[in-house]
Amino acid sequence: MARPENETQAVSVRDALQRLHQEITSCHACNLRNGARLPVPGSKIAEIPDLPRVPLLIVGEAPGREEDIQGAPFVGWAGKFLRNVLRRTYLTDLTYITNLVKCRPPENRDPEPQEIIACSPHLDRQIEIARPHIILALGRFSAGYIWEKFLHEKENRPFPGITRVNGQVFPLERNDERLYVSFFFHLAYVLRQARKGNEALPKRFRNHFYGLRIMLEDYGYPMRPKRYR
Ligand code: SF4
């Protein structure tokens, strides 16, 4: 199966995202930076894909304690689970990961609306550069933001809440291209359910990724990428 687009463009997309990471690292646009050790611009479990665009963009909510220490998203216990899911679904090389808010809120509290307003231009730029085929928002804040950005007008309704859209995929046309927007619960919530003995939700989470992987095959991405971590 043909590798989508060409390698020359691939380098420029990755470089552009890396440059943006540098800018985000020096951002002080809101008070969260004062309490954070390291801003968390994006990726790591899955490095920025070596492709002309990002097939799957995962948007989490905000860094937690481990992310704040290491400066990368999903590096704690939730990250271990996500890494495993990406590997098992052959999505590691096709995924770029970021958060809605790049600096850790104190005591892992929810991000405030003004912090989301201050930080979301970074995510907007990441989306612009990455030109993802699929965006997967994890958690209610990132899901709410992504819904309002892409789906409010099309669906003619405000964000209906994460429970209503959990596990769903919405197709839309953007810049004359097909974009899929999808949602799932916050990964920490999924894993808390697993610890309580509810294995159904983690299983749904894994199956959701299998579904997204199959959708990417329609774009010409091979079932088994060359590299497999
Ligand atoms: S949370 Fe976002 S807007 Fe606030 S300082 Fe960090 S990078 Fe800048």
UniProtKB/TrEMBL annotation:
Keywords, alphabetical: 4Fe-4S, DNA damage, DNA repair, Hydrolase, Iron, Iron-sulfur, Metal-binding
Per the UniProt record, which residue ranges are transmembrane? none
Q: Does the keyword Mitochondrion apply?
A: no
Please list the reactions this protein catalyses. Answer: Hydrolyzes single-stranded DNA or mismatched double-stranded DNA and polynucleotides, releasing free uracil
Q: Which residues does the UniProt record annotate as the domain Uracil-DNA glycosylase-like?
A: 46-210
**Domain of life of the organism encoding this protein:** Bacteria
Biological processes per GO annotation: DNA repair
Q: Which CDD domains match?
A: UDG-F4_TTUDGA_SPO1dp_like (cd10030)
State the Gene Ontology terms under molecular function. 4 iron, 4 sulfur cluster binding; metal ion binding; uracil DNA N-glycosylase activity
| UniProt EC number | 3.2.2.27
Coiled coil residues, start to end: none
Query: One Pfam family this chain carries?
Result: UDG
Q: Which family does it belong to?
A: Belongs to the uracil-DNA glycosylase (UDG) superfamily. Type 4 (UDGa) family.
UniProt xrefs under PANTHER family: TYPE-4 URACIL-DNA GLYCOSYLASE (PTHR33693:SF1), TYPE-5 URACIL-DNA GLYCOSYLASE (PTHR33693)
UniProt xrefs under NCBIfam families = UDG_fam4
Q: What is this protein called?
A: Type-4 uracil-DNA glycosylase
Name the source organism.
Answer: Thermosulfurimonas marina
